[in-house]
């Protein structure tokens, strides 16, 4: 169901719901980030450059994401008032709780960016200390800060002091195999006031190669000194793995990035499996096409027809993955220039594959055009 038509009445409905269920809610298990209340074992949508925009966040929210983040935003870009950076600040009431993520390597710039973010009134502010790509890490931001823990602490402290918002951090195990210092990082960042920590189970040197190692994530969570929520990230591509890692490592929740691209149903599937122990049937071809169409329309609504259609091209292959003989349709979709043309081809797919039964398949986790899907 599309939740956008209900935005205007969101505040009223939220207040009524909270009043009606206040006594019950206090008895339910929950995870708290400062004063933000999340359900037990929340599912977080990772901040992903060129992916986690409002249109994508809509379809993830409707499919069960409990907390979402914007694309990461350059602190320098915000200060310069760059159009692209400012555009990423767009958040909407129906998304809450939602966080804005910033990155940078200069204390003054990060603090000023935090004050700019503060004005937009997100629920929290996240600092990216995990992006491994050269254009970010090579300039001393993102995962590049992992080489200087004292700087990381100073940067975090500057942001915490600059904003009224709860501050969280997203990072990796360390710079490389010889410097897996996440246990020290967790303690030191907690000491300067962060309210939650999300950890990707690879080093910067690994990029996205090999399997994510959650062992150290579990050690951080089980450290008696740590009293903030710890969220694990990396290779969560099925309900079974989410539950397995929940039980094995004791994390407070999981953050999902690449597995949600073209497959926002991953959130509801995990929740269903946790609640029932049973796997949901995968979305039908009709549902895939319907959500792809919704994503397209929201993309055009937010970005305009030219940019909206062009940027949707990166998503079609993921929405239609697993359909035999789909390549010709994909090739057509990435050349079309109007919403009507795209929707006509999507309608063809829905009709021609209406009797095809999708199977739940392992989601292929790929490095999504060298952005930072942590």
Automatic annotation (TrEMBL):
Its EC number is 1.3.1.-. The keyword Flavoprotein applies. Pfam families: Dus. The active site is at residue 131. Keywords: Flavoprotein, FMN, NADP, Nucleotide-binding, Oxidoreductase, RNA-binding, tRNA processing, tRNA-binding. Its cofactor is FMN. One of its GO terms (molecular function) is tRNA binding. SUPFAM superfamilies: FMN-linked oxidoreductases (SSF51395). Gene3D superfamilies: Aldolase class I (3.20.20.70), Putative flavin oxidoreducatase, domain 2 (1.10.1200.80). It catalyses: a 5,6-dihydrouridine in tRNA + NADP(+) = a uridine in tRNA + NADPH + H(+); a 5,6-dihydrouridine in tRNA + NAD(+) = a uridine in tRNA + NADH + H(+). InterPro entries: Aldolase_TIM (IPR013785), DUS-like_FMN-bd (IPR035587), DUS_fam (IPR001269), DusB-like (IPR004652), tRNA-dHydroUridine_Synthase_C (IPR024036), tRNA_hU_synthase_CS (IPR018517). Residues 44-349 form the DUS-like FMN-binding domain. FMN binds at residues 101, 170, 200, 257-258. Belongs to the dus family. Catalyzes the synthesis of 5,6-dihydrouridine (D), a modified base found in the D-loop of most tRNAs, via the reduction of the C5-C6 double bond in target uridines. This is tRNA-dihydrouridine synthase. It comes from Sediminibacterium sp. KACHI17. The gene is dusB.
